[in-house]
Structures are given as structure tokens and as C-alpha cells.
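Narrative of activities, Objective 1.

The group set out to show that a structural description can be obtained from nothing but a protein's sequence at a throughput compatible with the screening campaign. Below is one input-output pair from the validation batch, recorded exactly as produced.
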Amino acid sequence: MKKRAALPRKKTATPRKRSTRTTRGIDAAEWQARVELAAAYRLTAMMGWTDMLGTHISCRVPGRHDQFLINPYGLLFEEMTASDLIKCDVEGRKLSESPYEVNSAGFTIHSAVHMNCPGADAVMHCHTQYGVAVASQKQGLLPLTQMSLTALSQVRYHDFEGVAEDHNERERLVRDLGDGSMLILRNHGTLTVGRSVGEMFARMYRLERACKMQITAMTGGAELNHLPGEIVKHTIDQGNFIYGENGRGAGGKLMWAALMRKLDRECPGYAS
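Output recorded for this entry:
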């Protein structure tokens, strides 16, 4: 009887560089912000919205208008943890230990918002397939679906200027965002802001879904059903109420709580 060949030994994966930062020296408010931001990174990966190491999500350090947390450039979103996140100031100085740097374009975009938009405590920027596709269409987001109509009043546009590494672009980014909460970066991608990580994430979900539905409808080959103006206006007004201060979708709180439960079930470990 022939002996079975021995199975090859599994190679031990080389451990990645990790931050030496722990909860030590971090107050409870900042740690909670880190946990929620790390959760947003993991959820973005689960949604399939990542662009390898590109794109970025940030939030202000609680109680500070001049400091924010952002991802280390070199980690995938799916492996992000609370202690991995880098704290930096609006001048680009790292204020926490990390073997990684901050994406330069990410710093330009996020520092612009955190420096100039008091109500935008969290900022998310994506390069999704459908978001970039709509951003590359001259008419932008169209009033085709319920999802787009309930978002349209918050959508603004910023013209493409190349890779966002010129700090002079920050002024124009802030100007174009204005009083909106969703920004389509033409020929580039999408951006949402919020008073919390949950609100920011919920807005990106709505914007991404609207873009996906538009591209899917336009590539289906059938004639599109364009809605009459009065229905468009009525639905936009409904969206303003539903997602306004007292609406059931305010702040994305219910969605965010549900997503955190999903993350705890399927991808724990982010809060370390």
C-alpha cells in the first residue's frame, strides 16, 4: 500500500506593520470616534466601494476643529482598526504614531472640509464604478428614480482639476460643496459629509445607489420614463422632510445602528 504524500506545510503569512498606538493616552470620546471610523472603513469594504489603497474617510477629533482622524496609506479598508487610524492636524502634521503616511490627495480633500465646514464632522470620498460613471456624464445625477430624487437637493458639483494634490484647490472644493452634503467630483468620484460617521455613511449609500440605478437604467436599452416636473418637485420635497432634522432618516441613526450590528456579526475586530 502506497504511503500518502505529505501535505506541504503552510507558509506563515508575514505580519503587516501595525501601529503601536493603543487606547493608552486616548480619551473616551476620541476612542469612540476611532471605533466608528474604523467601522466605516470595514463596511465600505463589505459594500464593495473600495479602490484598493485609494480613497479615504475621515472624522474630526471630538472637541477639536483643527485635528482629524484618517486612514494610514498602506492598509486595506477591510483590515482597518481603531488603533490604526492616524491623527493629524490641518497642516498635515501626524499627531499619532504610525509606520504609514497619509495619502497626500486625501489630506487635501479632507483638510479642506474640516478647516472650513463646521457642520461636517465626517467626510467620505469614493471612486466607485457607478459613482465615477455618473461623475463622468455631463448632466450628472438625473431625476430618474426615487433614490436620486430624495438626494438631489443635497447634490453639488466640483470640476476636475487633476489629482487633488494642490492645496489651492481646497478653497474651490469648499465653495462648490457650499450648503450641500453630497458632492460629485466630475470625472473623479463622489464625496459625502455628515455631522456623524453614521450620517456621512448613510448619505454615501443613498448617493451610490442612485448612481448605480441611473447607470443600470441607461444601459438597459429601453426608453427611460422621465417624470413630470410636479412629481419631481414633490419627491424632492419629501426627501428633504424624510432626511431632515425631524425625519425618520435623520442622521442615518437607524441605518448606522443596524450596520454596526451587521459588522459585529460578520467582521469583528475593528474596535481594537
